[in-house]
Amino acid sequence: MNNRNHKSGRKPGGDGVLHIAIADDEEEFRRRIGVFLEKYLASKKIEYNVELFDSGNGIVQQGSAIRKFDIFFLDIDMKDVNGIETAKAIRKFSENAYIVFVTAYIDYSIEGYKVNAIRYVLKDSDNLEDSLTECMEAILKKMAVREPVLQLLFNEGIKEVPINQILYVESTLHKLTFHLIDHSDVLTMYQTLNTIERELAGYHTFLRVHQSFLVNIRHIKTVNHYIVYLDNGEEMMVPKVRYGDVKKAFIKYKGDV
Fold this sequence. Notes:
The chain has helices at 27-43, 56-60, 83-93, 109-114, 128-146, 193-200, 240-256, and strands at residues 18-23, 48-53, 71-75, 98-103, 119-122, 149-154, 157-162, 166-172, 175-180, 187-190, 206-210, 213-216, 220-224, 227-230, 235-237. It has 257 residues and is an alpha/beta fold.
């Protein structure tokens, strides 16, 4: 079930599409959640893509491609890899995705906190749609708050890019390349990194780690021994002259989060 609907002003993913994964080994609930989401998102005029998995292992095997998903609906009690273990695997690649546990009974609340689950939805035939509606309203509200969108004129045209989808901006001979989480587009412009750094300063999330790199601090996993480690596995050397400031900025950001 891979469906897309009309575009809207809300741009949840880097490609303007809300990507959702549903993992449940019970076909009935997998289908019901999928059908509900299609109707709900169509009514909101949000462009979407829903993918169905009949096991947690199906998601785990996605590896780094897990990052493309914005929301996961996970049955807790799956046979091969349960929902909790699936969520732990998701968190290895994505700290910001929303995880919703779908369960016949609330019995894993402590484990849910460990993976920062946003909701538990009970498999209650009478109240399932109401619970899913409340859940999606809460998620979309959080997305609207945390996802400011940057609109810029690129060589490829005017594009809207959610700030959180930008990994870093790279400068090569006055040509800037915007590296995005899902690699959906190659966005470039002819501009200096100093200029774009000033334009992005108001978001308080971009850090100049090198003469040629402006990094989204949200995607820095750690800073150690003159190296910045990004959450997608990339590494960047930090010159000695910048290292102290970069380290302090990262520590301050982690303390503020």
